[in-house]
Every structure is written in structure tokens, then in C-alpha cells.
Amino acid sequence: MRKNFRTHLGLLLALLALPLGLSAQDSKPKVKKVKVKTVEGLRFDPVRFTVKRGEMIELKLENHDPNDQPHNFVLIKKGTLSEIQAASMVVGADSMEKGFVPDSDAVLVKSGLLNPDEKETIKFQAPKEKGIYHYVCTFPGHALIMYGALYVDEKYKDELAYDLNVPEFVRTTELEKLKALMEVERPSYLRLFMPDAGPAAIAVALPEKQNICWDAGNCRLRYAWSGAFVDATRMWNSNGNSLAKLLGDKYWETGGGETTYGLQIGEESTAEVHYKGYSLVAGTPEFHYEIDGTSVSELITSSPEGLTWRFEIDSPKGDVRVLAPDSDEATVMSLVGQRDGDFWVVPQMDASEFSLQLTKK
Amino acid sequence: MIERLFLCFLLAASSALAESAYKVQNIEIEKGLDPQVGGIDVLPDGRVFVCFHRGDVRLYDPKEDSWSIFAKGLHEPLGIVAESPSSVVVMQRPELTRIIDTDEDGIADRFEVIYDDFGMTGNYHEFAFGPVRDANGDWFIALNVASNGASIRPEIRGEFQQVGMPREDFALEWSKVKGKAGRMYSRAPYRGWVMKIDHKTGEATPWASGFRSPNGIGFDGEGNLYASDNQGDWLGTSKLHHVGKGKFHGHPASLPWTEGYDGRPPLEIPVEDLEAMRTPAAIWFTQGSMSNSPTQPILIPEGFGPFAGQMLIGEMNRSRILRLMMQEVNGVMQGACVPFLDGEGLPRGVNRLAFGPDQSLWTGHTHLSWAGGEGMTRIRYDENIAVNEIQDLSLTQDGFQVTFTKPQEDLGEIKLSAYTFLYQSKYGSPKIDEAKVKFEIKSISDTEIAMVLAEPLKKDFCYEFHFPSVGNPMVCYTVREIPD
Predict the structure, then answer these.
(1) What is the pLDDT of residues A11-57, one digit of tens each?
(2) Contact (Cβ atoms closer than 8 angstroms) between residue B362 and residue B377
(3) Which of A267, A312, B150, B323 would bridge with A297, disulfide CB 3.0–4.6 Å?
(4) Is A255 within 8 Å of chain B by CB?
(5) C-alpha–C-alpha distance, residues A313 and B279, integer Å
(6) Has residue B249 got a pLDDT over 90?
(7) How far apart are CA B298 and CA A92, in angstroms?
(8) Res B7 pLDDT > 70
(9) pLDDT at B116 over 90
(10) CA distance B66 to chain A (A)
């Protein structure tokens, strides 16, 4: 009864509105306006954007390429990028006439071929199926690197620098921007959520473009990478949820998880570690902790070959086993002691002060 | 009617135009630094230690208007206590840390853990707040619970709490299992607790449980500890808790870390059982009108106007600082809140407060991507400008006693209503049983009145007043106990 009344009321209101022209305007579907520029370096700008499924798009294409290159905008079916890239390379007698758009069922939407400083507005309906689509410039030779990603009812899963749906050169450019942004003094350090470590991790930037992750949860060195430091921007631009990303190449790690310890002193397995903090030695943190009541200091510095990993142990009660595996890209050894599987074993008599050398191959 | 309206307009205009006795000065923060302030404290010499969102601790010298870097690289520091020009104690995500400049070159070189024996799952919502010191020098901190806006990380620090959803389920597709985790969850030790740490031995005592997001702890002048908490699940509206040893303050996620806990998953405990266990809030901050996200309470010293001995508390969502008027009734702390500064050049996001040796108030602002602000201000009191506010509002057997900071020629039409809030697992609560309350005014002196209610006072109700003749007309009193 009530519903009926409402329906009638709605109808009545609609009828009343009609003569004023309100209804006609209201019922017009919303159009999303997007501007896409083609810019220097065979690149779409934006190189990705989001739309809702099935919505009407009014896309204004502008060719800003200063290098006298013609460009078009061709939206293609999901998963057909390589097919269209290949097809666009084939130039036939009628290619010019067809604006260099390949004859293919994969083509969903196409613009004309624009010369520099030309504009065109195309209207189309966004795909009705959600997912990530590509738009391509099909002028011969362009499609291999000149494409972008249309996210239909999908959120970006990652920053542009890490988005595999955009061309590699775009990712590289973005990554270089991040590296410049994250350029840090060396040595310096940052405490933040790090990948492949516990939540109380410390990232240290060392000279010689060396970097390490030290875990203050279980008091041990987790891994090393070379090159730029970390991308902390996502953490900084939020409430801190994001994991940092390494901006260089990880070449060595100790492995294990949250219950793995880095040192064993004497015969008994390590039962308890207590993190005590760090002091700065010429800006580099020297970590302090206790293993089953024995005080340990650990200092990792860089060397031209890799890392120097120094321990000071207060009256070690036995031989010291350091979790220090070799990797495909690095070896770990010392002047004292010997290798035993993933461990380097230092005899008790030498264990109050010793260094390991990590050499990057 | 028109005359009345005109009068109201005049009153409103005069209170709006009246010059404030509290002047807000914006403090310029160095360029190139994200100016979200996590903590702020002032040295006896007037210099100000500030910690920032991106992990810096910097020292500001107001005399020189200059900044220097004391330390860098901390993980989301959200509180700082300045012990000396060469030593500060900072609460950062993973630990309570003493940061020392041992060679006195102005730059810290030693970072000593005071306390890190609490759990972290890597969930973003596990913030750590405080520290504050009691009269003995012992530390108090508050640990946030995790939010099911995210899962836990593959590696955690500390023991995993087995009560409730199994750990392996936390690795499943989060949107499908998050409901089972609880809206807010505490799966690593002492999440949702206030902790006490002995300053000599470093030994930690789980002090009180039942917190959700206690972004702000502080003492009053009598050594009572307070913690604010934010509207959400089990919090019908934001609150101020009078923190007591062994007390449970209402949010059940933290309960499994209680010594001798019976093992019931918190989500399965009937509300009646929780109701019987909990200590209700000392003050409710009415959502939408008073405060949406209260922060740090701080005692007002002598020399900052007429309110010495009361407390102030920050508010995140508005350009507002609130004032608290506590009252002990039948051994229970309860009381009233009123806006203290509203706008007047204050940025939003008042996160941290500290008084300097000259009794000026320093504020630090943040947002952490929620509604808030950024930057720093210094607020000074000008004793030459009269303050026209509610001096105090307290509960009597049959109503309220109200004192004003100055004689009131015309009180205008005082309004009073009352309402309560639900205690429920759902997020927030509407105002419940809201009704106007009738009363009679008895004048005691030109600065004091008694309001005698026409009906009996109701426990667990919030009484909301509007006094049109003062600068900040809205005052709310939370009734827990009624004087015998």
C-alpha cells in the first residue's frame, strides 16, 4: 500500500517536472570526461585511468608530441595487447586509409589519426565487464611501447612505478623519480615496515650503495641489497599501513622467519633474545642485544666488495654460530672459524670479537 | 519574538566579536618537512622537542626561531617527554626509547630501549601512545588494537593470541575473513591496554584493559590517570576514561591478555557480562557536536587564566581544544566538558599539548590521513582580557551548580537536554532517549547559580547545557553517580 503510494507520488512528481524540462535533463546519463594527451617519448598521459563499467566516456584526445609523430587512441579487448602490437606492425595498401588501425575483433574503440597539435573528442561506452584493458597507439612501430591501462571498476593495486600494466619504460621513469625522492644521506637509517622481516625492522643505508635490513624483533640481520634505498612514500602518505619497497637489488638474505635467531652461543639453542637499542658509530647504528643473558654488539658497515659484519660478545660461553648462508650472489666468510652449512662457526677463544666479510660476487 | 531574536543576535555577535584572552600563534615549521606532529614537550629553558610523522626529532628554539635535528629514522613516534637538552623519551611504534646525546654535540647518538616487550602484528592500527610519568617517575603508555581494515603480517613480534580466529586464516583473502577477526582485534600482547613501566627496573605491569584507540593519556593534579578513546565498536561516542589498575574499560578485544583469562573469544562474550565487568567512562564526548576524536588530556597550570587545576584535551576533527571539569562523586570520577578554543586560528588535528615554563601552551597537529591538520601553535593567555566562560559545573543531589568566570547580567535562555548512548559491538550509537529537561534557576551570587531539575537525575545520562551568555555556550556533564 505504502509502496504504491510512493510510486504514484514519484510518477506525479516526474510528470510535474516534465514541462519545466527538468526530467529530460535528469534522465540524461552522466558522462565522464577524460583528457588524454600523447606526449614526447611515445607516451600517453595519463598512462592509466579508471572508469566505471558501462559508463559513457567523452574522451578528448590531444596530440602534444613535439617530434612530429602522428598518434591515435585504440581501446582493445582484455588480453589482446601483444596481438594488436604485432598487427599494428603490418602495413598494407589500405593502412593509411584505415588510420593504421588493424582489422581486428579486438578493437573496441578507435579515434582518428591525429597529427601534432590536433584534437579529437570521441564518445564511447566503457566496457561492461570489469578488468584492466589497454589503449594503444597503433601507428606502425608505436604500439610496442605506447600503450596505457584502462581500469574498469578496478582499483590500482600499486603505484605507477610498480604497475605491470603500463609500459616498462614508464615504470622505470617513475622508479627513477622515486629513487631521487628517496635519496638519503649515507649512512642513515629508517625504522618502518619492511618486506620479509618482522614488524620492528630497521633499514640502514650504508655508503657504497649498500643497504641492509636488520630486525629488532628477533635481533638479526635479515638481508642486503645494493643500489638505491627504500620507497617509504606510501607509508609517509598514509596512516603507516604500507610496506616499504626496496629500490635496489636484493642479493643476499639469511632466511628463516619470526622464530629464527641469528646467533647461537654454546651448545644450547638460543632461548631468548632481548633487543637493547643501538648507538651510532659515525652515523651507522651498532645494535645491542642480549642472547640468553650474554651481551652482544653487532655493527654492519660497507666495503667496496660488500659488507663487513662485526660482532662483540661479552664473555661467550662457547663457540658462536652465526646464521650466515652463502647465496648465488654473495659469499660470507671470516679469518677465524669455518663454515657449517648455513652457519659460520667461530671458536669460543676467538668469539669475543670477530668480523665476517660478505662479498658480493 | 523579533525583539528576542534581535537580542539573541546581539548576544551572539558580542560573544563572537569579543576579543579572546587566548591568542593562537602559528609556529613556522622548517620547509621540506612533513609537518605532522606526533609529540611535543618543552624544556625548562623554553626550547621545544618535537617528533614528526616521518621519524625526526627536532628541537625548536623560540628565542632564535630556529630548528635543529636531534634524531632521525624513528617509526611513527606519537609521544615525547623531554628529560634534558640531551635526553628525550619517545614512544614509537615498536618501542619506548630513550634517545641520548652522549657527547653533547646536539645530535643524539644512543637509542636505548626502555620497553619493547609488547606485541606487534604489523597491522597499521597498532599505534603506541604516551608516554607520561607519574609522581614516582614510572612510565605509562597505551597500546592501540589492530583494525580489520587490514590483516596481520606474515611475521609478528611477540606471542600470537590463539583465542578467536586461527592465525592461518589471517593469511586468507582478507575481505572474506575480516568479519571473523572482529572489527578491532588484539592478537599480540597487550594491545588495547595501558601499561605501566617501572622506571628503575624496566618491569612492565599490564595496568588496565578495554581500550580501542587511546590516543592520549595524562594525569590531573591529584595523580589520577586519564585516557581518551575514540568512537567505534563498543564506543557509542568518544570518551575519557579514569584509568584504574586492573579495570576493564569496555572494549573487549583486549580481554584475553588478562591474567587468568577464561579463554572465551571476546566476540562471544554476552554484552550483559561485559556490562557487568566494565568501568564506564568518566566523560562522554558527544559525537558530532563536542568531539569526534579526542586526544591528549593535560593539566592546566597556574598562570594560564582562570582554569588552573582543570584539564584541557585536544580534538582531531575540528579546530578545537576542550576543557574538562572533573568531579569526584561517591568515589567515582566524572564530570563535564566544554569547548575551550574553537577556531580562532587554531588548525584542526590537535594531537599533542605541552605547557612551557612561561605557561604558554604548545600544540602539535596531525592527521595520518584521517580528518585532522598539521603544524604547531603556541597559545598565550592575555590577563588583560576578561574571560567570560563557565568556570565550573558540578552535580548536586537535585541538579547542577554552575559558576561563571565573571558576573552575568543576563543569563539568557539556558537550555538543558539529556540523552544516553548504547554499549554495543556496532560502530557508534545514536543519542538514545533524548529529551528536554525542565529546571528552575536559583541564583546564589552574581557568578553562581543552582539549577534544580524538575525530574530526578538519571545515571548514565549525558546532560547537555546551552548557556547563551558565555563565549562557549555548550557544556556536557556525564552523570555516573549522584551525590548521596
Answers:
(1) 444 444 444 444 444 456 689 999 999 998 899 999 999 999 999 99
(2) yes
(3) A312
(4) no
(5) 49
(6) yes
(7) 79
(8) no
(9) yes
(10) 22
Lowest mean pLDDT among A27-36, B50-59, B183-192, B215-224: A27-36
Residue A1 clears pLDDT 90, i.e. is over it? no
**Residue A169, H or E segment:** helix A168-181
For residue A293, what pLDDT is reported? Answer: 95
Judge whether A234 is closer than 8 Å to chain B, CB to CB. no
**Which set of grid coordinates corresponds to residue B99?**
634517545
Calpha distance A97→B263 (Å, rounded): 76
**Is the pLDDT at B460 greater than 60, yes or no?**
yes
Chain A residues with CB-CB distance to B157 below 8 A? 198-200, 217, 258
Q: Which of B251, B258, B297, B256 is nearest to B140 (CA)?
A: B297
Q: Is residue A68 predicted with pLDDT exceeding 60?
A: yes
Taking contacts as CB-CB distances below 8 angstroms, the residues of chain A near B150 are 241
Please tell me if residue A217 touches chain B, with a CB cutoff of 8 Å: yes
pLDDT-based confidence at residue B17 (cuts at 50, 70, 90): low
SS3 B111: strand
Q: Does A259 contact chain B (CB < 8 Å)?
A: no
Tell me what the mean pLDDT of segment B89-103 comes to: 98
Of B53, B73, B122, the CB nearest to A189: B73
Of all residues in chain A, what percent carry a pLDDT higher than 70? 92
Instruction: Give Cα B285 distance to the centre of its chain.
Output: 10
Residue of A nearest to B33 (CA): A236
Q: How far is the C-alpha of B455 from the C-alpha of B443, rounded, in Å?
A: 19
Q: Nearest CB to B157: which of A191, A198, A202? A: A198
- Our measurement of the distance from residue B241's CA atom to the centroid of its chain's CA atoms, rounded to an integer in Å, reads 9
pTM equals 0.87
Q: Which residue has the higher pLDDT, B6 or B398?
A: B398
Nearest to B94 among A199, A232, A238 (CB): A199
Q: Judging by DSSP bridges, how do beta strands B194-197 and B128-133 pair with one another?
A: unpaired
Strand ranges, E, within B305-404: 311-315, 320-329, 332-342, 350-355, 361-365, 375-381, 390-395, 399-404
CB contact under 8 A, A198 and B120: yes
To the nearest whole angstrom, how far is the Cα of A270 from the nearest Cα of chain B? 16
CB distance A191–B92 less than 8 Å?
yes
Q: Which grid coordinates are listed for B451?
A: 539549577
The interface predicted TM-score (ipTM) is 0.94
Residue B103 burial (CB count, 10 A): 10
- Which of A188, A202, A241 would best serve as a mutation to test chain B binding (most B beta carbons within 10 A)? A241
Q: Which three cell numbers stand for residue B170?
A: 589471517
Give every CB contact of residue B455 below 8 A, 6+ residues apart in sequence.
B437, B438
The pLDDT of residue B198 is 98
Query: Do the Cβ atoms of B110 and A280 come within 8 Å?
Result: yes
- What does DSSP assign to residue B235? B
Query: Residue A280: its chain B contacts at CB < 8 A?
Result: 108-110
> Any CB–CB contact under 8 A between A239 and chain B?
yes
pLDDT of residue A4: 43
Residues A345 and A264: beta-carbon distance below 8 Å: no
pLDDT at B15 over 60: no
Secondary element (H or E) of residue A7: helix A2-17
Question: A182 phi and psi, to 5 degrees?
Answer: -95, 15
